[in-house]
Amino acid sequence: MKNNTRISRINDEILRELSQILRTEVKDPRIGSMTSIIRVDTTQDLKYCKVNVSVLGNDDEKDAVMKGLKNAAGFIRHQLAERLNLRYTPELIFKLDDSVEYAVRMSK
User: Is-contact 51 96, C-beta < 8 A?
Assistant: First the structure.
C-alpha cells in the first residue's frame, strides 16, 4: 500500500512539472497550445513513464505534435530531472489520448 501512495504522488508531481515544461520551456512550433497532459503512469521501478497526451485538432496536427514530443523527449526528461528529486528519471513514452474528443462526440 505504501508503494502505491508513493507512485501516485510521483505521478502527480510528474504531471504538474510536465505540463509546466510544455507550456514554458519547449519551443518546438509543432507542439501547440492545444496540447495537454491527461494522465501519467509510472512503473514501480521508475524506469518508464507513459504520458497520455490530448491534442485538439485534425489528424495532421496530432501527428505533428506526437513527432515533436518524441523529438523533444530527451530535453523534457532533462528538465524533469532538474526539477524532481528522484534517483532515476523515468524514460518518457508519449501516447495519444482521444478520450476528450470521444466525450465531446458522445455529448453531441
Answer: no
Average pLDDT, integer, range 82-91: 91
Please answer whether residues 46 and 10 qualify as being in contact, where contact means their C-beta atoms are separated by less than 8 angstroms: yes
In whole angstroms, what is the distance from residue 41 CA to residue 10 CA? Answer: 9
Q: Give pLDDT tens digits for 31-69.
A: 887 889 999 999 999 999 999 999 988 889 999 999 999
Query: Helix or strand or coil: residue 91?
Result: strand
Q: Which grid coordinates are listed for 47?
A: 524506469
Residue 64 dihedral angles phi and psi, to the nearest 5°: -65, -40
pTM: 0.86
CB atoms within 10 A of CB 94: 20
75, burial (CB in 10 Å: exposed 0-12, middle 13-18, buried 19+): middle
Helix (H, G, I), strand (E, B) or coil at 96: strand
Q: Which amino acid is at 11?
A: N
